[in-house]
Design brief:
By secondary structure, the chain is mostly helical. The chain contains five helices and no strands. Helix 1 (2-19) packs across helix 2.
């Protein structure tokens, strides 16, 4: 029953998003637990200072970093072939566009 209700809610939200996005976001804000309380500036500053003042260093030998570096290196080695665009090609493609589309 819970899955059914979640699916119904998801379906209605998808439909509302497609029809009226402003109304969709208003409904989301109503269902969220936002508070209008203004936080104490000193508490906020202390909170973020505690987070940013602690130095951390990521694992430089992580597997995903090595894979990402290989992927980037491969992409950097590939060069794009030069492409010659002349007026005939542009005319040919622009004939395929509908009249109301911007060039």
């Amino acid at each position: 029953m819970k899955r059914y209700e979640e699916r119904i809610q998801q379906f209605s939200q998808n439909r509302m998003f497609g029809l009226d996005q402003k109304k969709f976001y208003e409904e989301l804000n109503k269902s969220s637990n936002f508070s209008n309380e203004v936080q104490n500036a000193e508490e906020c500053t202390k909170f973020w200072d505690d987070i940013w003042s602690v130095e951390k260093e990521h694992n430089r030998s992580a597997f995903w970093l090595k894979e990402l570096k290989k992927e980037i290196d491969c992409k950097m080695k590939q060069t794009q072939d030069t492409m010659k665009i002349d007026t005939e090609k542009v005319k040919k493609q622009s004939r395929k566009l509908p009249n109301w589309k911007a060039p």
